[in-house]
Amino acid sequence: MGIKISGIELENPLILASGILGSTGSSLNRIARTGAGAVVSKSIGIEPREGYEGPVLLKVDCGFLNALGLPNPSYKNFIEELEDFDRYCPLIISVFGSSSSEFVEVAEDLEDYADAFELNLSCPHVEGYGMEIGRDLTFVEDITREFKRSISRPTWVKLTPNVGEITEIGLAAEKGGADAVVAINTVKGLRIDVESGYPLLGNVYGGLSGRCIKPIGLAAVYSLYKKLKIPIIGVGGIEDYRDVLEYLMAGARCVEIGSALYYDLEIFKEIDSDLKRYLEENSLEMEDIIGLAHRKRKKKEKEKEKDREILPKDVVIKRIKRENKDVRTFFFEDALLDVRPGRYVMVWVRGIDEIPISLSYKDAITVERVGKTTESLFKLKEGDSIGIRGPFGNGFDIKGENILLIGGGIGIAPLLYLAEVFGEKKKDITTLIGSRSRETLLFLKEFEKISKVFVSTDDGSLGKKGSVLNMLDAEIFKQEYDMIYACGPEKMLRSLLEFFNEKDLLEKTQFSLSRIIKCGLGICGSCCIDPKGLRVCRDGPIFYGGEILNSEVGRYERDHTGRRRKV
Length: 567
Ligand SMILES: Cc1cc2nc3c(=O)[nH]c(=O)nc-3n(C[C@H](O)[C@H](O)[C@H](O)COP(=O)(O)O)c2cc1C
What we know:
There is one protein chain. The protein has 16 helices and 31 strands. It is of the alpha/beta class and about 575 residues long. It has 3 domains: about 5-50 and about 70-185 and about 210-295, TIM Barrel (Alpha-Beta Barrel); about 315-390, Translation factors (Elongation Factor Tu (Ef-tu), domain 3, Beta Barrel), CATH 2.40.30; about 400-565, Rossmann fold. Strand 18 (about 355-360) and strand 19 form a beta hairpin. The radius of gyration is 28 Å and the shape is elongated. The chain binds flavin mononucleotide (FMN). Flavin mononucleotide binds near residues 257 and 260.
Protein backbone atom coordinates (compact mmCIF):
# COMPACT_ATOMS: atom_id res chain seq x y z
CA MET A 1 0.00 0.00 0.00
CA GLY A 2 2.98 2.26 -0.62
CA ILE A 3 2.35 5.73 -1.95
CA LYS A 4 4.46 8.48 -3.44
CA ILE A 5 3.84 12.10 -2.51
CA SER A 6 5.88 15.08 -3.67
CA GLY A 7 8.64 12.69 -4.67
CA ILE A 8 8.80 10.88 -1.31
CA GLU A 9 8.02 7.16 -1.13
CA LEU A 10 5.90 6.26 1.92
CA GLU A 11 5.10 2.71 3.01
CA ASN A 12 1.55 3.79 3.72
CA PRO A 13 -0.42 7.07 3.54
CA LEU A 14 -0.64 7.53 7.33
CA ILE A 15 1.50 10.34 8.75
CA LEU A 16 1.98 11.59 12.30
CA ALA A 17 0.57 15.17 12.50
CA SER A 18 2.73 18.02 13.75
CA GLY A 19 2.66 18.81 17.46
CA ILE A 20 1.80 15.34 18.71
CA LEU A 21 4.80 13.55 20.20
CA GLY A 22 7.04 15.23 17.67
CA SER A 23 9.32 17.28 19.93
CA THR A 24 12.09 14.76 20.54
CA GLY A 25 14.05 12.34 18.41
CA SER A 26 13.12 9.42 20.61
CA SER A 27 9.36 10.08 20.55
CA LEU A 28 9.51 10.42 16.75
CA ASN A 29 11.38 7.09 16.64
CA ARG A 30 8.72 5.53 18.84
CA ILE A 31 5.86 6.56 16.56
CA ALA A 32 7.82 5.69 13.43
CA ARG A 33 8.11 2.15 14.77
CA THR A 34 4.36 1.84 15.28
CA GLY A 35 3.90 1.79 11.52
CA ALA A 36 3.51 5.46 10.48
CA GLY A 37 4.23 6.07 6.79
CA ALA A 38 6.04 9.28 7.82
CA VAL A 39 6.28 11.56 10.84
CA VAL A 40 6.03 15.34 11.12
CA SER A 41 8.00 17.13 13.83
CA LYS A 42 6.64 19.73 16.22
CA SER A 43 6.72 23.18 14.57
CA ILE A 44 10.17 24.71 14.97
CA GLY A 45 11.06 28.41 14.92
CA ILE A 46 14.00 30.78 15.19
CA GLU A 47 14.13 31.38 18.93
CA PRO A 48 13.45 29.09 21.88
CA ARG A 49 9.84 29.50 23.09
CA GLU A 50 8.37 28.16 26.28
CA GLY A 51 4.83 28.45 25.02
CA TYR A 52 1.82 29.63 27.02
CA GLU A 53 0.99 29.24 30.66
CA GLY A 54 -1.42 26.43 31.47
CA PRO A 55 -3.85 24.98 31.10
CA VAL A 56 -2.60 24.29 27.58
CA LEU A 57 -4.60 21.23 26.56
CA LEU A 58 -8.17 20.25 27.39
CA LYS A 59 -10.10 17.17 26.47
CA VAL A 60 -13.50 18.52 25.45
CA ASP A 61 -16.78 16.89 24.35
CA CYS A 62 -15.65 15.44 21.09
CA GLY A 63 -12.01 16.36 20.76
CA PHE A 64 -9.27 18.54 22.21
CA LEU A 65 -8.66 22.22 22.68
CA ASN A 66 -5.01 23.25 22.83
CA ALA A 67 -3.02 26.42 23.16
CA LEU A 68 0.51 25.24 23.72
CA GLY A 69 1.84 28.37 22.05
CA LEU A 70 4.43 26.74 19.80
CA PRO A 71 6.93 25.73 22.50
CA ASN A 72 10.17 24.65 20.84
CA PRO A 73 13.89 24.80 21.57
CA SER A 74 14.72 26.79 18.36
CA TYR A 75 16.10 25.20 15.23
CA LYS A 76 19.67 25.35 16.48
CA ASN A 77 18.84 23.30 19.58
CA PHE A 78 16.45 21.00 17.73
CA ILE A 79 19.36 19.58 15.75
CA GLU A 80 20.40 17.34 18.64
CA GLU A 81 16.92 15.81 18.61
CA LEU A 82 17.17 15.27 14.88
CA GLU A 83 20.51 13.55 15.36
CA ASP A 84 18.64 11.01 17.51
CA PHE A 85 16.03 10.31 14.86
CA ASP A 86 16.96 7.01 13.25
CA ARG A 87 15.14 7.49 9.94
CA TYR A 88 12.89 4.46 10.32
CA CYS A 89 10.47 6.36 8.06
CA PRO A 90 10.61 9.72 6.25
CA LEU A 91 10.67 12.83 8.43
CA ILE A 92 8.85 16.03 7.59
CA ILE A 93 10.03 19.02 9.60
CA SER A 94 7.36 21.56 10.47
CA VAL A 95 8.58 25.14 10.45
CA PHE A 96 7.01 28.38 11.63
CA GLY A 97 8.10 31.98 11.32
CA SER A 98 6.77 35.49 10.93
CA SER A 99 8.37 36.22 7.56
CA SER A 100 9.81 34.36 4.60
CA SER A 101 13.36 35.01 5.82
CA GLU A 102 12.56 33.39 9.18
CA PHE A 103 11.08 30.33 7.49
CA VAL A 104 14.15 30.05 5.28
CA GLU A 105 16.63 30.59 8.11
CA VAL A 106 15.10 27.74 10.12
CA ALA A 107 14.95 25.36 7.18
CA GLU A 108 18.46 26.03 5.88
CA ASP A 109 20.07 24.49 8.93
CA LEU A 110 17.64 21.56 9.09
CA GLU A 111 17.61 20.65 5.42
CA ASP A 112 19.96 17.68 5.81
CA TYR A 113 17.58 16.04 8.26
CA ALA A 114 14.31 16.59 6.40
CA ASP A 115 12.69 14.60 3.62
CA ALA A 116 10.29 17.52 3.24
CA PHE A 117 9.23 20.65 5.07
CA GLU A 118 5.77 21.57 6.27
CA LEU A 119 5.19 25.32 6.57
CA ASN A 120 2.93 26.04 9.51
CA LEU A 121 0.89 28.93 8.13
CA SER A 122 -2.07 27.95 10.20
CA CYS A 123 -1.59 27.76 13.99
CA PRO A 124 -4.69 29.59 15.29
CA HIS A 125 -3.50 30.99 18.58
CA VAL A 126 -0.05 32.62 18.35
CA GLU A 127 0.20 36.31 17.55
CA GLY A 128 2.27 37.14 14.49
CA TYR A 129 2.61 33.53 13.38
CA GLY A 130 0.62 30.71 11.81
CA MET A 131 -2.90 31.64 10.85
CA GLU A 132 -2.28 35.37 11.28
CA ILE A 133 -0.08 35.30 8.20
CA GLY A 134 -1.62 32.19 6.67
CA ARG A 135 -4.86 34.04 6.03
CA ASP A 136 -3.20 36.55 3.75
CA LEU A 137 -3.09 35.32 0.14
CA THR A 138 -0.09 37.42 -0.81
CA PHE A 139 1.89 36.35 2.25
CA VAL A 140 1.18 32.69 1.62
CA GLU A 141 2.21 32.95 -2.02
CA ASP A 142 5.34 35.01 -1.28
CA ILE A 143 6.54 32.93 1.66
CA THR A 144 6.09 29.73 -0.32
CA ARG A 145 7.90 31.18 -3.33
CA GLU A 146 10.81 32.50 -1.26
CA PHE A 147 11.06 29.22 0.61
CA LYS A 148 11.10 27.20 -2.61
CA ARG A 149 13.74 29.50 -4.04
CA SER A 150 16.14 28.83 -1.16
CA ILE A 151 15.28 25.30 0.00
CA SER A 152 15.52 22.28 -2.26
CA ARG A 153 13.37 19.84 -0.25
CA PRO A 154 9.69 19.33 -1.14
CA THR A 155 7.51 21.91 0.57
CA TRP A 156 4.09 21.25 2.04
CA VAL A 157 1.99 24.21 3.14
CA LYS A 158 -0.34 23.62 6.07
CA LEU A 159 -3.55 25.59 5.76
CA THR A 160 -5.86 27.12 8.31
CA PRO A 161 -9.59 26.40 8.24
CA ASN A 162 -10.20 29.72 10.00
CA VAL A 163 -10.82 31.61 6.76
CA GLY A 164 -13.77 32.30 4.48
CA GLU A 165 -12.51 30.25 1.55
CA ILE A 166 -9.67 27.82 2.15
CA THR A 167 -9.29 27.09 -1.58
CA GLU A 168 -8.07 30.65 -2.18
CA ILE A 169 -5.24 30.08 0.30
CA GLY A 170 -4.51 26.69 -1.25
CA LEU A 171 -4.32 28.27 -4.69
CA ALA A 172 -1.95 30.94 -3.37
CA ALA A 173 0.33 28.21 -1.99
CA GLU A 174 0.17 26.34 -5.28
CA LYS A 175 1.01 29.51 -7.17
CA GLY A 176 3.98 30.06 -4.88
CA GLY A 177 5.27 26.63 -5.89
CA ALA A 178 4.14 24.37 -3.00
CA ASP A 179 4.54 20.65 -3.67
CA ALA A 180 1.50 19.77 -1.55
CA VAL A 181 -0.96 21.34 0.86
CA VAL A 182 -1.97 19.99 4.25
CA ALA A 183 -5.52 20.66 5.41
CA ILE A 184 -6.43 21.38 8.12
CA ASN A 185 -4.78 22.82 11.19
CA THR A 186 -6.94 23.27 14.28
CA VAL A 187 -10.14 25.33 14.39
CA LYS A 188 -10.11 28.38 16.67
CA GLY A 189 -12.09 27.69 19.84
CA LEU A 190 -12.68 28.65 23.47
CA ARG A 191 -14.07 27.14 26.69
CA ILE A 192 -14.96 28.85 29.98
CA ASP A 193 -14.86 27.51 33.52
CA VAL A 194 -18.41 28.15 34.71
CA GLU A 195 -17.45 27.90 38.39
CA SER A 196 -14.95 30.75 38.26
CA GLY A 197 -15.79 32.54 35.02
CA TYR A 198 -12.18 32.13 33.79
CA PRO A 199 -11.46 31.09 30.24
CA LEU A 200 -10.12 27.58 30.66
CA LEU A 201 -6.99 27.93 28.55
CA GLY A 202 -4.10 30.06 29.76
CA ASN A 203 -4.11 31.77 26.37
CA VAL A 204 -7.93 32.09 26.33
CA TYR A 205 -8.24 30.96 22.69
CA GLY A 206 -7.09 27.59 21.47
CA GLY A 207 -7.25 25.24 18.53
CA LEU A 208 -9.89 22.54 18.35
CA SER A 209 -8.85 19.12 17.06
CA GLY A 210 -10.14 15.56 17.05
CA ARG A 211 -13.39 13.95 15.96
CA CYS A 212 -15.46 17.16 16.00
CA ILE A 213 -13.43 18.79 13.23
CA LYS A 214 -13.55 15.88 10.78
CA PRO A 215 -16.41 17.31 8.66
CA ILE A 216 -14.56 20.64 8.48
CA GLY A 217 -11.37 18.91 7.35
CA LEU A 218 -13.26 16.83 4.82
CA ALA A 219 -15.01 19.85 3.34
CA ALA A 220 -11.65 21.61 3.04
CA VAL A 221 -10.02 18.65 1.29
CA TYR A 222 -13.00 18.15 -1.01
CA SER A 223 -13.04 21.77 -2.15
CA LEU A 224 -9.24 21.97 -2.46
CA TYR A 225 -9.23 18.86 -4.65
CA LYS A 226 -11.65 20.55 -7.02
CA LYS A 227 -9.36 23.55 -7.52
CA LEU A 228 -5.75 22.45 -6.97
CA LYS A 229 -3.41 20.40 -9.10
CA ILE A 230 -0.91 19.60 -6.32
CA PRO A 231 -1.58 16.74 -3.88
CA ILE A 232 -3.50 17.26 -0.65
CA ILE A 233 -2.75 15.75 2.74
CA GLY A 234 -5.92 15.50 4.81
CA VAL A 235 -5.92 15.98 8.56
CA GLY A 236 -8.52 16.48 11.25
CA GLY A 237 -10.40 14.00 13.41
CA ILE A 238 -9.12 10.74 11.96
CA GLU A 239 -9.62 7.84 14.37
CA ASP A 240 -10.01 4.74 12.22
CA TYR A 241 -9.61 3.39 8.69
CA ARG A 242 -13.08 4.52 7.64
CA ASP A 243 -12.13 8.10 8.50
CA VAL A 244 -9.04 7.64 6.33
CA LEU A 245 -11.19 6.32 3.49
CA GLU A 246 -13.40 9.40 3.73
CA TYR A 247 -10.40 11.71 3.43
CA LEU A 248 -8.98 9.74 0.50
CA MET A 249 -12.34 9.73 -1.26
CA ALA A 250 -12.60 13.50 -0.70
CA GLY A 251 -9.31 13.83 -2.56
CA ALA A 252 -6.49 13.45 -0.03
CA ARG A 253 -3.44 11.50 -1.19
CA CYS A 254 -2.19 10.94 2.35
CA VAL A 255 -3.52 11.76 5.81
CA GLU A 256 -2.07 12.98 9.08
CA ILE A 257 -3.27 11.79 12.46
CA GLY A 258 -2.81 13.69 15.72
CA SER A 259 -5.34 13.72 18.55
CA ALA A 260 -6.31 10.07 18.15
CA LEU A 261 -2.94 9.04 19.56
CA TYR A 262 -4.45 9.91 22.94
CA TYR A 263 -6.62 6.80 22.67
CA ASP A 264 -4.12 4.48 21.09
CA LEU A 265 -0.42 4.94 20.45
CA GLU A 266 -0.51 1.93 18.12
CA ILE A 267 -3.13 3.52 15.89
CA PHE A 268 -0.95 3.57 12.75
CA LYS A 269 -0.43 -0.19 12.77
CA GLU A 270 -4.13 -0.82 13.30
CA ILE A 271 -5.36 1.56 10.59
CA ASP A 272 -2.70 0.34 8.19
CA SER A 273 -3.84 -3.27 8.48
CA ASP A 274 -7.57 -2.36 8.32
CA LEU A 275 -6.96 -0.29 5.22
CA LYS A 276 -4.98 -3.07 3.53
CA ARG A 277 -7.73 -5.56 4.31
CA TYR A 278 -10.38 -3.19 2.93
CA LEU A 279 -8.47 -2.67 -0.32
CA GLU A 280 -7.83 -6.38 -0.71
CA GLU A 281 -11.41 -7.42 0.01
CA ASN A 282 -12.70 -4.90 -2.50
CA SER A 283 -9.93 -5.50 -5.06
CA LEU A 284 -9.04 -1.83 -5.01
CA GLU A 285 -5.82 0.15 -5.32
CA MET A 286 -5.17 3.36 -3.41
CA GLU A 287 -5.47 5.33 -6.64
CA ASP A 288 -9.03 3.98 -7.10
CA ILE A 289 -10.03 5.54 -3.81
CA ILE A 290 -8.33 8.94 -4.04
CA GLY A 291 -10.92 11.49 -5.22
CA LEU A 292 -13.63 8.83 -5.62
CA ALA A 293 -16.34 11.10 -4.18
CA HIS A 294 -15.72 13.55 -7.00
CA ARG A 295 -15.95 10.88 -9.68
CA LYS A 296 -19.18 9.51 -8.20
CA ARG A 297 -20.67 12.97 -8.07
CA LYS A 298 -19.71 13.67 -11.68
CA LYS A 299 -21.29 10.40 -12.73
CA LYS A 300 -24.49 11.36 -10.94
CA GLU A 301 -24.48 14.77 -12.58
CA LYS A 302 -23.97 13.18 -15.99
CA GLU A 303 -26.90 10.85 -15.37
CA LYS A 304 -29.11 13.74 -14.31
CA GLU A 305 -28.02 15.63 -17.41
CA LYS A 306 -29.30 12.79 -19.60
CA ASP A 307 -32.86 13.35 -18.37
CA ARG A 308 -32.82 17.11 -18.71
CA GLU A 309 -34.39 18.63 -21.80
CA ILE A 310 -32.85 21.80 -23.13
CA LEU A 311 -35.51 23.31 -25.34
CA PRO A 312 -36.18 26.98 -26.10
CA LYS A 313 -38.16 28.64 -23.34
CA ASP A 314 -40.82 31.15 -24.31
CA VAL A 315 -39.62 34.51 -22.98
CA VAL A 316 -41.65 37.71 -23.19
CA ILE A 317 -39.86 40.95 -24.06
CA LYS A 318 -40.77 43.38 -21.29
CA ARG A 319 -38.92 46.45 -22.52
CA ILE A 320 -36.84 47.48 -25.51
CA LYS A 321 -34.27 50.23 -25.07
CA ARG A 322 -32.71 51.98 -28.04
CA GLU A 323 -28.98 52.37 -27.35
CA ASN A 324 -28.18 53.83 -30.77
CA LYS A 325 -29.31 53.52 -34.38
CA ASP A 326 -28.21 49.88 -34.67
CA VAL A 327 -28.15 48.65 -31.09
CA ARG A 328 -31.08 47.76 -28.81
CA THR A 329 -31.32 46.20 -25.36
CA PHE A 330 -34.12 43.68 -24.87
CA PHE A 331 -35.22 43.18 -21.26
CA PHE A 332 -37.01 39.93 -20.44
CA GLU A 333 -40.20 39.55 -18.43
CA ASP A 334 -39.14 36.20 -16.98
CA ALA A 335 -36.01 35.63 -14.90
CA LEU A 336 -33.49 33.20 -16.40
CA LEU A 337 -31.83 30.52 -14.31
CA ASP A 338 -28.05 30.26 -13.74
CA VAL A 339 -27.26 33.72 -15.04
CA ARG A 340 -23.67 34.95 -14.67
CA PRO A 341 -21.66 37.66 -16.40
CA GLY A 342 -19.97 36.28 -19.50
CA ARG A 343 -22.61 33.63 -20.21
CA TYR A 344 -24.75 33.81 -23.33
CA VAL A 345 -28.19 32.71 -24.47
CA MET A 346 -29.29 31.18 -27.77
CA VAL A 347 -31.96 33.53 -29.06
CA TRP A 348 -34.53 31.90 -31.33
CA VAL A 349 -36.43 34.33 -33.52
CA ARG A 350 -39.09 31.90 -34.59
CA GLY A 351 -39.12 31.04 -38.26
CA ILE A 352 -35.85 32.87 -38.86
CA ASP A 353 -32.83 31.46 -37.00
CA GLU A 354 -31.20 31.00 -33.61
CA ILE A 355 -28.14 33.09 -32.64
CA PRO A 356 -25.91 33.43 -29.55
CA ILE A 357 -26.03 36.71 -27.60
CA SER A 358 -24.20 37.50 -24.36
CA LEU A 359 -26.12 38.76 -21.35
CA SER A 360 -25.63 42.49 -20.81
CA TYR A 361 -27.69 42.46 -17.61
CA LYS A 362 -28.96 39.53 -15.60
CA ASP A 363 -32.26 39.78 -17.49
CA ALA A 364 -31.33 41.39 -20.81
CA ILE A 365 -29.35 41.10 -24.01
CA THR A 366 -27.94 43.94 -26.06
CA VAL A 367 -28.06 43.30 -29.78
CA GLU A 368 -26.41 44.94 -32.77
CA ARG A 369 -28.30 44.82 -36.07
CA VAL A 370 -25.95 42.93 -38.35
CA GLY A 371 -27.95 40.30 -40.28
CA LYS A 372 -31.34 38.77 -40.96
CA THR A 373 -31.95 37.40 -37.45
CA THR A 374 -31.07 40.60 -35.64
CA GLU A 375 -33.08 42.54 -38.25
CA SER A 376 -36.12 40.39 -37.39
CA LEU A 377 -35.47 40.80 -33.68
CA PHE A 378 -35.51 44.57 -34.13
CA LYS A 379 -39.00 44.29 -35.64
CA LEU A 380 -40.40 42.76 -32.45
CA LYS A 381 -42.30 44.93 -29.97
CA GLU A 382 -42.57 44.98 -26.19
CA GLY A 383 -44.92 42.13 -25.21
CA ASP A 384 -43.78 39.90 -28.09
CA SER A 385 -41.89 36.75 -27.22
CA ILE A 386 -38.79 34.89 -28.37
CA GLY A 387 -37.37 31.44 -27.62
CA ILE A 388 -34.38 31.33 -25.29
CA ARG A 389 -32.08 28.36 -24.67
CA GLY A 390 -29.48 28.69 -21.94
CA PRO A 391 -27.69 30.62 -20.48
CA PHE A 392 -24.73 28.60 -21.72
CA GLY A 393 -20.96 28.84 -21.38
CA ASN A 394 -18.56 29.21 -18.49
CA GLY A 395 -18.91 32.92 -17.70
CA PHE A 396 -16.20 35.16 -16.28
CA ASP A 397 -14.12 34.04 -13.34
CA ILE A 398 -15.09 36.81 -10.93
CA LYS A 399 -12.24 37.68 -8.60
CA GLY A 400 -9.93 40.46 -7.45
CA GLU A 401 -10.20 43.87 -5.84
CA ASN A 402 -8.75 46.08 -8.58
CA ILE A 403 -10.33 45.39 -11.91
CA LEU A 404 -9.60 46.59 -15.43
CA LEU A 405 -12.30 46.23 -18.09
CA ILE A 406 -11.51 46.72 -21.77
CA GLY A 407 -14.36 46.75 -24.27
CA GLY A 408 -14.72 47.59 -27.93
CA GLY A 409 -17.92 48.04 -29.98
CA ILE A 410 -20.74 45.65 -29.07
CA GLY A 411 -18.17 43.79 -26.92
CA ILE A 412 -18.79 46.43 -24.27
CA ALA A 413 -22.20 44.89 -23.52
CA PRO A 414 -21.13 41.71 -21.62
CA LEU A 415 -18.70 43.83 -19.59
CA LEU A 416 -21.56 45.97 -18.31
CA TYR A 417 -23.15 43.03 -16.49
CA LEU A 418 -19.71 42.12 -15.11
CA ALA A 419 -19.11 45.72 -13.96
CA GLU A 420 -22.47 45.75 -12.18
CA VAL A 421 -21.56 42.61 -10.26
CA PHE A 422 -18.17 44.05 -9.27
CA GLY A 423 -19.86 47.38 -8.51
CA GLU A 424 -22.25 45.70 -6.05
CA LYS A 425 -19.20 44.28 -4.28
CA LYS A 426 -17.70 47.80 -4.14
CA LYS A 427 -14.58 46.83 -6.10
CA ASP A 428 -12.23 49.33 -7.67
CA ILE A 429 -13.06 49.29 -11.39
CA THR A 430 -11.30 51.00 -14.28
CA THR A 431 -13.05 50.82 -17.65
CA LEU A 432 -11.62 51.47 -21.11
CA ILE A 433 -14.25 51.56 -23.82
CA GLY A 434 -13.93 52.36 -27.47
CA SER A 435 -16.14 52.69 -30.48
CA ARG A 436 -16.23 54.07 -34.02
CA SER A 437 -17.67 57.40 -32.87
CA ARG A 438 -19.43 59.26 -30.06
CA GLU A 439 -22.87 58.20 -31.44
CA THR A 440 -22.11 54.50 -31.38
CA LEU A 441 -20.32 54.31 -28.01
CA LEU A 442 -22.32 52.09 -25.65
CA PHE A 443 -23.14 52.41 -21.95
CA LEU A 444 -20.87 55.36 -21.12
CA LYS A 445 -23.26 56.69 -18.42
CA GLU A 446 -23.80 53.25 -16.93
CA PHE A 447 -20.06 52.61 -16.57
CA GLU A 448 -19.44 56.09 -15.18
CA LYS A 449 -21.76 55.32 -12.26
CA ILE A 450 -19.60 52.42 -11.08
CA SER A 451 -16.09 52.94 -12.45
CA LYS A 452 -13.37 55.29 -13.64
CA VAL A 453 -13.97 55.46 -17.39
CA PHE A 454 -11.56 56.19 -20.25
CA VAL A 455 -12.93 56.53 -23.77
CA SER A 456 -11.55 56.29 -27.28
CA THR A 457 -13.23 56.68 -30.67
CA ASP A 458 -11.88 55.85 -34.12
CA ASP A 459 -12.82 59.30 -35.42
CA GLY A 460 -11.79 61.17 -32.28
CA SER A 461 -15.33 62.53 -31.72
CA LEU A 462 -15.07 61.55 -28.04
CA GLY A 463 -12.07 60.77 -25.84
CA LYS A 464 -8.78 59.66 -27.32
CA LYS A 465 -8.61 59.19 -31.07
CA GLY A 466 -7.93 55.61 -32.20
CA SER A 467 -8.56 52.18 -30.73
CA VAL A 468 -8.79 51.22 -27.06
CA LEU A 469 -5.20 50.04 -27.30
CA ASN A 470 -4.08 53.65 -27.46
CA MET A 471 -5.37 54.05 -23.93
CA LEU A 472 -3.11 51.37 -22.45
CA ASP A 473 -0.50 53.82 -21.28
CA ALA A 474 1.42 54.59 -18.10
CA GLU A 475 -1.58 56.45 -16.66
CA ILE A 476 -3.69 53.27 -16.77
CA PHE A 477 -0.89 51.12 -15.36
CA LYS A 478 -0.13 53.51 -12.51
CA GLN A 479 -1.94 50.92 -10.44
CA GLU A 480 -1.79 47.14 -10.52
CA TYR A 481 -4.82 45.09 -11.49
CA ASP A 482 -5.80 41.78 -9.94
CA MET A 483 -7.82 40.86 -12.99
CA ILE A 484 -8.34 42.22 -16.49
CA TYR A 485 -11.37 41.45 -18.64
CA ALA A 486 -11.57 42.09 -22.37
CA CYS A 487 -14.29 41.79 -24.97
CA GLY A 488 -14.51 43.22 -28.47
CA PRO A 489 -13.55 42.68 -32.10
CA GLU A 490 -11.05 39.86 -32.62
CA LYS A 491 -8.36 42.08 -34.05
CA MET A 492 -8.50 44.10 -30.86
CA LEU A 493 -8.37 40.92 -28.77
CA ARG A 494 -5.33 39.70 -30.72
CA SER A 495 -3.51 42.97 -30.05
CA LEU A 496 -4.44 42.72 -26.37
CA LEU A 497 -3.18 39.13 -26.23
CA GLU A 498 0.20 40.23 -27.57
CA PHE A 499 0.25 43.29 -25.33
CA PHE A 500 -0.53 41.42 -22.11
CA ASN A 501 1.77 38.59 -23.09
CA GLU A 502 4.64 41.06 -23.23
CA LYS A 503 3.61 42.41 -19.85
CA ASP A 504 3.45 38.83 -18.52
CA LEU A 505 -0.16 39.40 -17.48
CA LEU A 506 -1.97 36.72 -19.49
CA GLU A 507 -2.70 34.74 -16.33
CA LYS A 508 -4.66 37.72 -15.07
CA THR A 509 -6.50 38.45 -18.30
CA GLN A 510 -9.80 36.92 -19.35
CA PHE A 511 -11.08 37.24 -22.90
CA SER A 512 -14.66 36.85 -24.06
CA LEU A 513 -14.80 35.36 -27.55
CA SER A 514 -17.59 35.64 -30.04
CA ARG A 515 -17.85 33.01 -32.78
CA ILE A 516 -20.52 31.40 -34.93
CA ILE A 517 -22.20 29.20 -32.36
CA LYS A 518 -24.84 26.84 -33.69
CA CYS A 519 -25.71 24.29 -31.02
CA GLY A 520 -24.53 25.86 -27.75
CA LEU A 521 -24.19 22.32 -26.40
CA GLY A 522 -20.59 21.66 -27.34
CA ILE A 523 -21.16 18.89 -29.83
CA CYS A 524 -21.71 20.28 -33.33
CA GLY A 525 -18.15 21.61 -33.53
CA SER A 526 -18.88 24.79 -35.49
CA CYS A 527 -17.27 27.10 -32.93
CA CYS A 528 -14.07 25.11 -32.29
CA ILE A 529 -10.86 27.12 -32.46
CA ASP A 530 -7.44 25.90 -33.55
CA PRO A 531 -5.06 24.47 -32.52
CA LYS A 532 -6.54 22.87 -29.38
CA GLY A 533 -10.09 22.42 -30.65
CA LEU A 534 -11.43 24.54 -27.80
CA ARG A 535 -15.21 24.91 -28.03
CA VAL A 536 -16.12 28.58 -27.67
CA CYS A 537 -19.71 27.61 -26.81
CA ARG A 538 -18.88 25.31 -23.92
CA ASP A 539 -15.20 25.50 -22.92
CA GLY A 540 -15.67 29.27 -23.27
CA PRO A 541 -16.76 31.78 -24.31
CA ILE A 542 -14.39 33.14 -21.64
CA PHE A 543 -10.75 32.08 -21.85
CA TYR A 544 -7.68 33.10 -19.91
CA GLY A 545 -5.07 34.69 -22.17
CA GLY A 546 -2.63 31.78 -21.90
CA GLU A 547 -5.22 29.37 -23.29
CA ILE A 548 -5.65 31.28 -26.53
CA LEU A 549 -2.40 33.16 -27.09
CA ASN A 550 -1.26 30.74 -29.78
CA SER A 551 -4.70 30.17 -31.23
CA GLU A 552 -6.44 31.33 -34.39
CA VAL A 553 -8.07 34.20 -32.45
CA GLY A 554 -7.59 37.46 -34.32
CA ARG A 555 -6.08 35.64 -37.30
CA TYR A 556 -8.89 33.64 -38.87
CA GLU A 557 -12.30 32.19 -38.05
CA ARG A 558 -14.82 29.87 -39.73
CA ASP A 559 -17.97 30.93 -41.56
CA HIS A 560 -21.38 29.20 -41.45
CA THR A 561 -20.15 26.50 -43.85
CA GLY A 562 -17.11 25.83 -41.70
CA ARG A 563 -14.71 27.41 -44.17
CA ARG A 564 -11.84 29.49 -42.85
CA ARG A 565 -11.90 33.21 -43.43
CA LYS A 566 -9.67 36.03 -42.31
CA VAL A 567 -10.88 38.24 -39.49
C1 LIG B 1 -1.51 19.30 21.24
C2 LIG B 1 -1.46 19.72 19.81
C3 LIG B 1 -0.35 20.41 19.35
C4 LIG B 1 -0.28 20.81 18.02
N1 LIG B 1 0.82 21.47 17.57
C5 LIG B 1 0.94 21.77 16.25
C6 LIG B 1 2.12 22.36 15.74
O1 LIG B 1 3.08 22.62 16.43
N2 LIG B 1 2.16 22.65 14.40
C7 LIG B 1 1.13 22.37 13.56
O2 LIG B 1 1.23 22.64 12.36
N3 LIG B 1 0.00 21.78 14.03
C8 LIG B 1 -0.11 21.47 15.34
N4 LIG B 1 -1.25 20.86 15.81
C9 LIG B 1 -2.35 20.57 14.86
C10 LIG B 1 -2.29 19.13 14.36
O3 LIG B 1 -1.12 18.89 13.63
C11 LIG B 1 -3.51 18.81 13.49
O4 LIG B 1 -3.52 19.67 12.37
C12 LIG B 1 -4.82 18.98 14.24
O5 LIG B 1 -4.69 18.53 15.56
C13 LIG B 1 -5.96 18.20 13.57
O6 LIG B 1 -5.70 16.83 13.53
P1 LIG B 1 -6.28 15.78 14.61
O7 LIG B 1 -7.75 16.01 14.69
O8 LIG B 1 -5.92 14.43 14.06
O9 LIG B 1 -5.59 16.08 15.89
C14 LIG B 1 -1.34 20.48 17.14
C15 LIG B 1 -2.45 19.79 17.63
C16 LIG B 1 -2.52 19.40 18.94
C17 LIG B 1 -3.72 18.64 19.42
